[in-house]
Amino acid sequence: MSTEPSRRSARPEAVVVGVGPVSMADVVRVARDDAPVTVSPEALAAVAESRERIEALAQDPKPVYGVSTGFGALATRHIPPESRVHLQRSLIRSHAAGTGDEVEREVVRALMLLRLSTLATGRTGVRVEVVRAYAAMLSAGLTPVVYEYGSLGCSGDLAPLAHVALALIGEGTVRTPDGTALPAEEALRAHGLTPVVLAEKEGLALINGTDGMLGQLVLALHDLRRLLQTADIAAAMSVEGQLGTDRVFAADLQELRPHPGQALAAANMRRVLADSAIVASHRGPECTRVQDAYSLRCAPQVAGAARDTVEHARTVAERELASAVDNPVVTRDGRVESNGNFHGAPVAYVLDFLAIVTADVAGISERRTDRFLDVARNHGLNPFLAEDPGVDSGHMIAQYTQAAIVSELKRLANPASTDSIPSSAMQEDHVSMGWSAARKLRRSVDGLTRVLAIEILTAARAVELRAPLEPAPATAAVIAAVRETVPGPGPDRYLAPEIEAVVAAIRSGRVLEAVEDVLGPLS
């Protein structure tokens, strides 16, 4: 899983949750930077208005799903008024049935913000005090313990959201901002908060959303934007280090196949390779090479297709952020209607698409790395870039590590969304498995980061071994950034910490920053 950034010392500016959607940037700020949240007066007014409709229906002798009935396959039972507080509490307790490892803090905070955003639309029928309590728990930095297994991605991310709701009513376990696990009621009271007693409809409204899978999609999109730019940098470094040509990245060649992502990737690679003495050294008629291998020549096509897929996923995420996902919902004209908007298929599909993209971008990166290490294909460099081949093994096993990760990413690219297991006595007979798709995408993003780190580490070594030829200014800046923590070519050293250092440089944005300090922002 991706490592979360360290907490900021200064309290970040609050995110205001209104009746409209929160932005993806705000999701990241709340999830990773601990930004507090407030709810706008307009949203609180909308919440209060819709609650009036729910309370009127609660007095109606006619059963209304989620208000005066059981849930799922038990929806046929009418629940009398004196049992409805118990009904809501029982719903949360029974649905908080997760198991496995704890879900990362950033994921739980993201899903909490997204559920709060839906509550604030006034379409779920909860009371104002529930919305305020949810926002207060987020702002206090109290993170309910949520477990990895339990959601089928339909009827919402039920178990993960139920564990959050359990903390809201003062049960279960939360972690404080410093990571200490405490009983929820103790933690709430220590922060001046009071557990909520849920009324009609509120338990269902707290758990019936796609917020877990959507939160993970938003975080992945944030990370993939930087990683695809980093992949362009890595590819350009490999082209340079392997004496490849930049002519194939020319703008007019890309225009012959007008995919927007391809044009952006090629433009980045051209810019990174600009003014490279290494590339210029073999442009003349004495160079007998006709074409570079696909992993070099087709890098913009692969990275570009990845970008276009990410943009499609971003469109889906933005639509989902603008949604009020609950069942039943309170409509603008006051009706309370059942619906199927909780089905996670739209989100699940793009989570799976992104896992495919991530695996393929990692795969082409590994192939470029392997070419550096093969004396038959690396154009004059030592086998495995070793200082003293035979005594030293160079980067031989670094490529093994890449290969192991890429193999894992190929398995993770198998779609979760094609596997539906019916539940709730066949009432919920088709589910999205979107939560599972999100969990494996997080592993995929982490794997891609590590694969690119090994390519950059290897390419930096190879480019330096081309001395006295000078690399491009942008490439030189990346190498300098790597050399801040990793020494240059030499005899074999303990390699694992060097790989981790470059992983950290990619995650922190240091690699991208080094290039953009020279060239300005990449596409």
From TrEMBL:
Keywords linked to the UniProt accession: Histidine metabolism, Lyase
PROSITE patterns: PAL_HISTIDASE
Pfam families from the UniProt entry: Lyase_aromatic
Name of the protein in question: Histidine ammonia-lyase
Enzyme class: lyase
Keyword Translocase: no
EC number annotated for this UniProt entry: 4.3.1.3
Gene that encodes the chain: hutH_2
Species assigned in the record: Nocardia macrotermitis
